[in-house]
Specification:
The chain has 388 residues and is α+β, with helices and mostly antiparallel strands. It has eight helices and 15 strands. It has three domains: 12-129, no CATH class; 134-234, Sandwich (Immunoglobulin-like); 236-246 and 299-388, no CATH class. The strands form four sheets. Strands 1, 3, 5, 6, 8 and 9 form a six-stranded mixed beta sheet that branches. Strands 14-13-12-15 form a four-stranded mixed beta sheet, with helices on one face. The protein has a three-stranded antiparallel beta sheet with strand order 2-4-7, with no helix packed on it. β12 (304-308), α7 and β13 (338-344) form a beta-alpha-beta unit.
Length: 388
Amino acid sequence: MSPSDAGREPSAGRTAAAVTAGLVGGVAGVAITRAIFGPGALLIGAGIGLAVMVSGMVLSWELSMARRRRSASSGRRLRKRLHPVAWFGPVVGSAVAMLAWAGVAHSSGSGWVQAVGALLAAVLLIGLVTPAFPAHGATVTCTASPSDGEAGRTATVTLVASGPIRIHPLVPAGPVTRAEGPPHGSRRVEVDVVPDRRGVVGTLTVEVASSAPFGILWWAREIEVPLPRPLHVAPRFGQAGRLGSELDHPPGDSPTRAPSTAGEPRGVRPYQPGDARRSVHWPATSHTGMLMVRETEHRIDDPLVMDVRLPSDPLEAEAVSERAMATVGRELARGRTVILGTLEPEGHVTRPVLDRVDLGRRLARALSPPTSPSPSGGTGRSTPRGRR
């Protein structure tokens, strides 16, 4: 849990103070209503109670969602225990409505008013307590999920819910989906999730909630649903970077080298820094007395060797991966062979990229080094070694 107070739940003292203030306000509202409109203002008192309940539900829901967003950003643990969602509005509103009805019933003295008040109290109590039971027993399993996705784009997973519940994806986040159907039996529902960052997703964290039978108060708990196969979330396409030329001095036959035989020969020219040693034209060199190299029209199969090193900061790592995604994707679209080096869970991997899907999976699995390798403050970058 983060040490900051932004993602913490309100303390017990603040909660008790809020409940007390709501009850006092409800009693004061009933007293003022009776003083202005007389003791027989049955409908007015009930209307005030219902208005307070509805407005309290809306306000409490907004505050709960804002607190949940702050808690998710602070990285707190999941709330696996059963808990009410936005409980302040329904509970205080129900109490205010009952106090208003009790005041009107006491002043009128009619038996039917008291009977209706008792029925209303039973309905409110059932609506507040009963939803906890289906929410506690709700289960969700995943039967189908995609294997590839992209950050910021919607991915659809298929879930099977044990009953008519509300499913809210939290990690990755997504819109609320209702598993509707008969009161009993499982039902199939498709849920959309929108991963905000790259990575490999193996489980889906969802909030299952129920407000049956009257929809007054939602009870919920958060569970982790294993995916049948990992979801590789590729980074977004950023702005492609420039490919610089470096001296090609790998000793011996490097596994990251590939022979270049494509392109029509144009002739020979003097050696320039960045030219591959295998392009040296030895007869012309011995004839002219200076180092000469072969020059061709195009060499699209001369591989681009890129080593992607991600910084430790998550935002900077996301920016580096997005730039690598755009740069390597552009070269793949041109038909060029790209050899990509990334630090993955099994170690440093250097091998050719097959296609765009393989590129997305490689960058999704890419990790940051445990310590910053650069003493000058640059934590990470993508280093291309291309020959043009």
